[in-house]
Amino acid sequence: MRTNIIRHENMMASYDVVNGWTVVEADGEVDAHTAPMIREGVLRLLDEGHRHFVLELGFVTFMDSMGLGVIVAITKRIREHEGSLRIASVSGRILRIFDLSGMRESYEIYPSAAEATQSAPSPGSLAHWPHPSG
């Protein structure tokens, strides 16, 4: 069952738990005004005990550098809690932001949330972040 964590005129975010993953779906614009709300929402979930996240970006219509910065900030916090983070459903336009920033190789990016949640999370998967393991 999806639970709303953010409601704003330009963006909404909700989450659901699937196979041990907390799937946070953002819908709308992720920019200087809304990105801090996503950060606070994820930090609240961390405080509630969630550790393994999939950030689903398929409904994100716009994301700027502030949005990417918030993803980096929440990744650091998730890492501190020995959690994991996967990115899912990224449009070509949003993926380009990851490419231009050099961050694409730092994240596990999946075509869909279903694929991202197919395998159960493994604690400490961010141990080598921001450099890819392998």
UniProtKB/TrEMBL annotation:
SUPFAM superfamilies: SpoIIaa-like. Keywords: Membrane, Transmembrane, Transmembrane helix. Residues 11-120 form the STAS domain. The keyword Ribosomal protein does not apply. It comes from the Bacteria. Belongs to the anti-sigma-factor antagonist family. This is Anti-sigma factor antagonist.
